[in-house]
Amino acid sequence: MNIFYTPLNKLIKRNITLFFVTLLVAFTTQAQESKQGFISDDLTIFMHAGPGTNYRILGTINAGTEIGITGKKENEYSEILDDNNRLTWVETKYLTRQPGLRFVVADLNNKLTSGNNYNAQLDGELNGLKNSLNIANQEKESLQVELTQVKKSLQAVQSKLKGQDTEIKKQWFFNGAIVLGIGLVLGLVLPRFFARRRSSMEKWG
Q: How many domains does one find in the chain?
């Protein structure tokens, strides 16, 4: 009895392990499918109330429409959540994980618009910087003109001060010469004048 018990036990364990692995793979696959999906391009397909053509038609759905995939599959049909939040069934072969051409084109147009807006913003900032630079250059030119005028005024003042200094020196020179002349005259004339006066007084005496 022990001879048959061991292989049977191993077989049971193996089957249980395979069962859990299969179950795990099934849950993983279902979890992966319960994500965003799209209807294939160039199609307009019918949506059914159940997994087959024998169920009534709920309407049509256009290519490229973004949908939700619940993960339920049956008879090569998949349950989806359409763009109006209705649960319905479509053929699995028409589902895709990639966005349709309409969404790709719309996304590219949005990126292009964003790029153009960004370029326009950069152009506006560049024009603003150019205007600021022009204003700065104009202010620089105005300051240079004022600086030139100040330099000219300073040179004129320096020339005037230099001329005034020369005139002052000349005036001092002339004043000194006059004082010297007066001193010489007084030094020569007064002694003679007093000498004559003394002689006259002696004669009278």
A: 2
**Residue 38: exposure state from Cβ atoms within 10 A (0-12, 13-18, ≥19):** buried
7-33: burial string, b at 16+ Cβ within 10 Å, e else: eeeeeeeeeeeeeeeeeeeeeeeeeeb
**Angstrom distance (rounded) from CA 131 to CA 134:** 5
And the tokens for 64?
Answer: 């490229």
Annotate 41-56 with DSSP letters as a single string: SS-EEEEESSSSTTSP
Q: For 137-158, how does the pLDDT look when each residue is reduced to its tens digit (9 = 90+)?
A: 888 988 988 898 888 888 888 8
Contacts 24+ apart (CB under 8 A), 179-186: none
Residue 92 lies in a domain: yes
- State whether 6 and 94 are in the same domain: yes
Contact status, residue 100 vs residue 86, Cβ threshold 8 Å: no
Token output for 51: 């997994």
Give dist(CA 81, CA 87) in Å, integer: 5
8 and 96 in a single domain? The answer is yes
Residue 106 and residue 52 in one domain = no
Average pLDDT score over residue span 4-25 = 59
3-state secondary structure of 130: helix
How long a stretch of residues is the chain?
A: 205
